[in-house]
Design brief:
The complex is a heterotrimer of chains A (about 300), B (about 325) and C (about 270).
Chain A (H helix, E strand, L loop, with lengths): L1 H28 L6 H17 L22 H29 L4 H23 L14 E4 L2 E4 H23 L1 H11 L1 H6 L4 H23 L8 H16 L4 H18 L8 H15 L13
Antiparallel strand pairs in A: 1-2
Chain B lengths: L2 H12 L2 H19 L7 H17 L5 H23 L4 H20 L4 H4 L5 E2 L3 H5 L8 E4 L2 E4 H26 L1 H11 L1 H6 L4 H27 L1 E2 L6 H14 L6 H22 L2 H11 L3 H22 L17
Antiparallel strand pairs in B: 1-4, 2-3
Chain C lengths: L13 E10 L2 E11 L4 E5 L6 H8 L7 E6 L2 E2 L5 H7 L1 E3 L12 H7 L9 H4 L6 H17 L15 H13 L5 E5 L7 H13 L6 E5 L3 H7 L2 E6 L2 E6 L1 H6 L1 H8 L14
The chains are: A mainly alpha (about 300), B mainly alpha (about 325), C alpha/beta (about 270).
Chain lengths: ~300, ~325, ~270
């Protein structure tokens, strides 16, 4: 049971990083971003790429230089680069695809369909270049688990969890203490009000996409510990949706709470149902949340219909 | 390059089995979204309901094939009820999340070890479509061709049945949408509150639309598995749902003939591109494989890349599709 | 055509008793007793935040009361859904006009008719089952369109109409339900003076058809011109009721809301 809780917390922490970005994007733009799955996958693919190849993988002429340009880098550095790559992709997607759509008056529903098209496009471009087989990182690929208090955890996972906690705490502090963070929450909460109090909404949206993209990429890196695959994001996207809906679409802290609950509940559910079906529990959580409390745990009640 | 082969494949694809199946599923989605404004992202789930309706009836319950077909309608209708009762009061984007979650739940359940005795698990159900093909006046294994169109006998039979069904159902939908019932749906799509104020029970109408579109989706699924003579859970994945969406938007949501036209355009295009690429001279092929990684596997991936790109561009620049008019801006709800 | 009123002619057609609605800690509506006389035009006025819109939504079924009873012609309609209220003879329009843009004008109108056989799924499949009734509905719709001077837009998409024409359409469409009670939510909002006059004339005809009108409005000139009765709300409560002349000279109301401001948009008047 405690092992399951530990697994649940681990899953929850990783999910939380992906979920916060999704929640804030919804809050600030009203958009349910289905392409978030690909931001996650991007993270793990980038980490793999930098770990194994370094930039020389694409730009062959760089081989005369040392790593990270000439060859693969230490995994930790690769993760850092992957996170940055995530922020970059987030920025590009917003700037190139969605900001122009917003400015042209494309409806929210049409934009949502756009995110789906984008998601499918990116996913299959990924599989096109990356291939469909599973791969693993060069470093820290397989470790023996440490045992303590009757629970097992690899050193690598432990460190990743600690990093996640640190990052999430940092995010929490950033959202409440810094001006940027507060602006993000203000716009997410009530866009018109934030705008009328002088906040540059477009700038905040851009920041949210960068921030969300970076976090999603980082979470993808951690999800890739077991295996690196082209559809890793897709497979957990529904878990992320469940987390965000449960916690409240549009609130960052809700995403965190929702993610932890989803992570733990999924793992506990294996006590009752087949492990094969454990992700289904998340879907049930999603459906139940929408029925009983559509605004989520921390969300505000909206006038529906 | 065998252009003859490419053209034969492309023309055959224009009215082939995939076109019929996907067009039918798109007709269902058209009822949901095109006419009523329901954001159903789980149409593949309704197809699975129809498919497994037949499959489970024959495999587990041992029923007659034709009874199984009837049961597949019931199954799709029940799914619509289960989905609709709780969700039709929710906002559009919430409905989209629930429908995608539900369709994935169906897929995961159907392929699971737990459900193996009922659904055949990962391997699914095979060898159940005999009774359908027994009725065929065509020799199943023989090729028939007229001009550039060439099909196996079993497919000719399926096409005759399929196209008849497709046209009949399309005409039925056309009739419905021209009636006061259909008018109420279109009003709900635009403004539910206004429609309620005029005495219409919006919830009830939406449920009926959900059931109608869902059952039509079920018929599509049933046709598909009859054609393949196999029911497999993993074929009912979300990318299929979004291919159907792309098809609907190509033609234009809310127009009677969109599903058929969109489906035909999509499949002809895909088959043409894939076959042309495959037919490229070996020298060109190897060069392409080295430079842009255009392997055999990747040619098959192009289809999905195009769906994604197509959906993205259509939603952005032409959400009203071919038949829609600019004023209608079919994806604009308010 | 005239509407049918079932109860005795002097009893109120709509009543609200002990109606309370709170949001969070705030009491948005707190109405002890209100009686609306039948076949009269009653105005509901008050500054922004007075609770008029909330009260209006409660009466028309678009919101649920916390406590209280609302009756229509003696029948308890508290908590009844809007679509059922329409069948009982109460129809409402919306402040932000909801002319259905993607339907033509005549389709908008025909939508308003109640009890259409063609609106049932199975009947819809067979045109023969509803085409005759449909023609009758269409004739009725054309008659009303003529009264409202909208016949020339009959087959155009409502989306191509001007704002004022859409207002007219929404009211015309509401009349298709053959209502006993017509609830108008700020009917003059955003309407130019010429059109406002036509609208007023049309509203004045309604009591003669046996219909009761209740409307929310800010424009005091309009209220003065067509109301038989004025109900003033503030902070969720009814603070005064009377004929337009009485309200105009009611010192408390005058001090608080009208003063020297008659003819001005009440929303610009400061609360004292």
């Amino acid at each position: 049971m405690s092992q399951l809780t530990l697994e649940g917390l681990k899953l929850g922490l990783y999910l939380a990083m992906a979920a916060i970005g999704l929640s804030l994007i919804f809050g600030t733009t009203g958009l349910v971003n289905f392409a978030h799955a690909e931001l996650i996958t991007w993270g793990t693919l980038m980490a793999y790429f930098f770990n194994i190849y370094g930039l020389v993988g694409t730009f062959g002429f760089l081989s005369v230089l040392p790593a990270p340009f000439g060859g693969g880098v230490n995994f930790i550095f690769a993760t850092l680069l992957a996170t940055i790559a995530g922020g970059v992709l987030g920025y590009v997607l917003n700037r190139v695809v969605f900001r122009t759509a917003r400015n042209s008056g494309v409806s929210l529903l049409a934009q949502m369909v756009m995110t789906i098209g984008l998601s499918i496009l990116l996913r299959y471009v990924f599989v096109y270049f990356f291939g469909s087989r599973y791969r693993v990182y060069k470093d820290y690929a397989s470790q023996r688990a440490n045992t303590f208090w009757g629970m097992e955890l690899t050193t690598r996972d432990a460190i990743a969890m600690v990093i996640s906690v640190v990052i999430l705490v940092g995010v929490g502090v950033g959202l409440t203490r810094t001006r940027t963070g507060r602006a993000m929450r203000a716009v997410s909460d009530n866009r018109d009000l934030a705008e009328s109090s002088g906040i540059n909404v477009e700038k905040v949206i851009s920041q949210v996409w960068i921030f969300g993209g970076a976090l999603a990429a980082l979470s993808g890196t951690f999800f890739g510990f077991d295996t690196v695959k082209w559809d890793i994001g897709t497979r957990i996207l529904l878990l992320v949706f469940a987390a965000v809906t449960l916690g409240g679409l549009g609130t960052a802290f809700g995403a965190l709470v929702g993610a932890l609950i989803v992570g733990v509940v999924i793992n506990w559910s294996t006590l009752i149902i087949d492990t094969e079906l454990k992700n289904m529990t998340a879907l049930l959580v999603l459906i139940l949340a929408l029925l009983l409390r559509p605004q989520g745990i921390l969300g505000k009640k909206q006038r529906i219909g | 390059m065998d252009w003859g082969f490419i053209l034969e494949r492309s023309f055959s694809a224009m009215i082939g089995p995939e076109v019929v199946v996907y067009a039918l599923a798109a007709v269902g989605l058209n009822v949901h979204f095109g006419y009523t404004g329901l954001m159903n992202f789980g149409q593949v789930g309704f197809m699975a309901a129809g498919a497994y309706g037949v499959g489970v009836s024959v495999y587990w319950l041992g029923w007659n094939f034709w009874v199984g077909i009837l049961f597949s309608f019931v199954y799709a209708a029940i799914l619509a009820l289960l989905l609709g009762i709780p969700t039709l009061r929710l906002r559009a984007d919430y409905l989209s999340l629930v429908t995608i979650a539900a369709s994935e739940t169906i897929r995961l359940l159907a392929r699971s070890r737990v459900m193996q005795p009922y659904t055949g698990g990962v391997e699914g159900v095979n060898q159940f479509a005999g009774p359908f093909y027994d009725l065929s006046p065509f020799e199943l294994g023989k090729f028939y061709s007229i001009g550039p169109f060439k099909y196996l006998g079993r497919d000719v039979w399926m096409l005759i049945v399929g196209w008849t069904l497709l046209i009949l159902i399309t005409l039925m939908v056309r009739q419905l949408m021209r009636s006061p019932w259909g008018r109420t749906l279109r009003a709900i799509r635009e403004d539910e509150d206004a429609t309620r104020a005029l005495g219409k029970n919006a919830y009830y109408y939406k449920m009926q639309a959900l059931m109608l579109g869902g059952i039509i989706g079920g018929v599509a699924g049933t046709l598909q598995v009859i054609q393949k003579a196999s029911v497999q859970a993993d074929t009912f994945n979300p990318v299929i749902t979004f291919t159907i969406w792309t098809i609907l938007i190509i033609g234009g949501p809310g127009r009677v003939w969109s599903p058929i036209v969109g489906s035909s355009i999509y499949w002809t295009l895909i088959v043409f591109i894939e076959n042309t690429l495959r037919q490229l001279p070996p020298g060109v092929r190897t060069t392409l494989e080295d430079t842009v990684q255009l392997s055999d596997f990747n040619i098959a991936m192009l289809r999905f890349i195009l769906v994604g790109l197509g959906l993205l561009l259509l939603a952005r620049y032409r959400p009203q599709g071919i038949f829609g008019s600019r004023e209608e801006m079919a994806l604009d709800r308010r | 055509m005239t509407a049918v009123n079932s109860a005795a002619p002097d009893t109120p057609i709509v009543t609200a008793t002990g109606v309370v609605k709170s949001f969070g800690g705030l009491r948005a509506v707190d109405v002890d007793k209100l009686e609306i006389q039948r076949n009269k035009i009653t105005a509901l006025i008050g500054p922004n935040g007075a609770g008029k819109t909330t009260f209006f939504n409660l009466l028309t079924g678009f919101d649920q009361v916390d406590t209280g009873v609302i009756t229509l012609d003696g029948e308890d309609i508290t908590g009844t859904a809007p679509h059922r209220l329409a069948a009982k003879g109460m129809v409402r329009t919306f402040q932000l006009t909801k002319a259905l843009a993607k339907l033509s004008t005549i389709e908008n109108m025909k939508l308003g008719a109640l009890h259409q056989r063609g609106e049932k799924f199975w009947s819809a499949l067979i045109p023969g089952m509803w085409s005759k009734q449909d023609r009758e509905v269409e004739a009725r719709a054309d008659a009303i369109l003529q009264r409202f001077n909208l016949t020339h837009m009959r087959d155009e998409y409502a989306g191509t109409m001007s704002g004022g024409q859409r207002k007219l359409l929404e009211m015309a469409r509401a009349l298709m339900t053959d209502p006993r009670v017509v609830m108008l939510d700020e009917p003059m909002a955003g309407v130019n003076p010429a059109l406002a006059q036509s609208l007023l004339e049309l509203i004045k005809l309604l009591p003669g058809e046996g219909r009761t009108v209740i409307f929310v409005e800010h424009n005091m000139d309009v209220v003065q011109e067509i109301s038989d009765w004025v109900v003033v709300m503030a902070e969720g409560k009814i603070i005064a009721q009377g004929t337009p002349a009485e309200i105009k000279s009611n010192k408390a109301v005058v001090d608080a809301y009208l003063g020297a401001h008659h003819g001005e948009d009440l929303s610009k008047v400061e609360l004292s």
